[in-house]
Amino acid sequence: MAQVRARQQPERNEPYEARLTSMKIAVIGVGLIGGSLALCFRGKPGLELVGYSNRQDLADLSVELGVVDSATLSLEEAVQDADFIFLSTPVGLLETYLEQVHALPLKKGCIVTDVGSTKDSIAAKARQLDWEDACFIGGHPMAGSERSGVQAATSLLFENAYYVLTPEPGTDPARIAALTELLSHTRAKVICLEPGQHDEIVGAISHLPHIIAVALVNQISGYHDSNPLYRTLAAGGFRDITRIASSDPVVWRDILLNNRFNLLKLLRDWNVQVESFIDQLEREDGEGISARFRDAGDFRDELPERRKGAIAKTYDLYLDVPDHPGIIGRITTELGSQGVNLSNLQIIESREDVPGLMRLSFRDEIQMERARKVLTGLEFDVYA
Ligand SMILES: NC(=O)C1=CN([C@@H]2O[C@H](COP(=O)(O)OP(=O)(O)OC[C@H]3O[C@@H](n4cnc5c(N)ncnc54)[C@H](O)[C@@H]3O)[C@@H](O)[C@H]2O)C=CC1
Ligand SMILES: O=C(O)C(=O)Cc1ccc(O)cc1
After folding, report:
1. What is the pTM assigned to this prediction?
2. Span 16-197: which CATH code?
């Protein structure tokens, strides 16, 4: 396993920009989020990335993939002399790691932060600890994906997303500025919120949708057990609103349990919505139903543009493809010859008696629209 490299100590009175040329960043738990942050920082002048893992194979993988400069199974070694420490494990482990890191010798001025999807309980834990010359500032990058693990890490994950910080009223503004400046490498927009308010809002716009997606998929899966046509016919709308149901079970178990008090209220409010639909259908209240769609459309149309909300936008096209050899090659060749960059391709359903559904993913809207034009020209039925 690679060792943490020796590095120069910054002078205490150097301006922040100068210190940027020699800083150690420790990432505790190098998965999707920790790894993506590491990739944002890695290779920037003077920044050294050290990953801590609890498994040798994962430590090795994080170095092999070029996500961190070095990796260690020793928490003490990882945090020793670190200027910034990012706690990036599932929420259920964050408070324990916070206590363990706090108990270790930390560099003067070290900023400890986390990336957990909930903020209130870790802020409360941090408040109980005496940080002396170090400090804790809670954080939550409001972008992610249904994928997990270091293999899914990408430096583009946070671009244009919000990155919430939850400093205490007494946190030194210079420390907040230092963390914000480091986070500029993510190209996310940093905002500060009070931890309780964060959990209420994020519970509603991220955690509740994950519950609804999972409940919906499991409901349909139950019907599918008695008739496989449910999955075969599952179309765009179902796919659109259930992508996040494929999220990591451990990560989401921890988030939901941690934010359970907000979620219990949110689910009761959700029940009111469901009951109201039941009532409108029983009364055949067409006007009431249309009004709800109109209201929802108005609100949704005002949502921030692509990738600025908690649920990152994907640039996917779907097309029905006949199940015959060579079709994938033809599509990729045509796109390649027209200079379209395809970032992923997936056959979702492939059986002899039905056309296959192909999903083509692109990095941005421009590539997606170029592909749409090429494929429509080839007389494929293309839909987003
Ligand atoms: N998944 C998402 O879209 C987002 C997740 N978050 C937050 O980021 C944090 C990490 O989530 P992901 O990166 O998605 O999960 P992940 O599963 O990709 O990464 C978690 C990492 O923690 C490591 N880990 C697990 N148990 C450990 C232990 N006992 N000791 C040390 N390391 C351990 C895993 O090996 C893995 O590298 C969570 O707190 C989550 O709430 C924040 C924003 C978005
Ligand atoms: O996959 C998606 O679109 C998400 O919902 C991303 C996400 C997941 C967890 C977070 O705490 C923040 C953002």
Report:
1. 0.81
2. 3.40.50.720
83 and 109 Cβ atoms separated by less than 8 Å: yes
Q: Where along the chain do its domains lie?
A: 16-197, 207-301, 315-383
Q: Which ligand is nearest to the CA of 252?
A: 1
For atom 4 of ligand 2, which residue has the closest CA?
Answer: 311
Q: Going by CA atoms, what residue is nearest to atom 8 of ligand 2?
A: 144
The per-residue pLDDT for range 229-276, each reduced to its tens digit, is 998 888 778 988 899 999 999 999 999 999 999 999 999 999 999 999
Ligand 1 near 144 CB (within 6 A)? yes
Cβ–ligand 2 distance for 143 under 6 Å, the answer: yes
Nearest bound ligand to the CA of residue 240:
2
Half-sphere exposure at residue 93, Cβ-oriented, CA atoms within 13 angstroms: 14
Among protein residues, the one whose CA lies closest to atom 42 of ligand 1: 117
Atom of ligand 2 nearest to the CA of 141: 12
User: Among the CATH numbers 3.40.50.2300, 1.10.3660.10, 1.10.3720.10, 1.20.140.10, which is that of 207-301?
Assistant: 1.10.3660.10
Neighbouring CB atoms inside 10 A of 370's CB total 16
Three-class HEC string of 129-173: CCCCCCEEEEEEECCCCCCCCHHHCCCCCCCCCEEEEECCCCCCH
Q: Which atom of ligand 1 is nearest to the CA of 30?
A: 37
Q: What's the complex ipTM?
A: 0.98
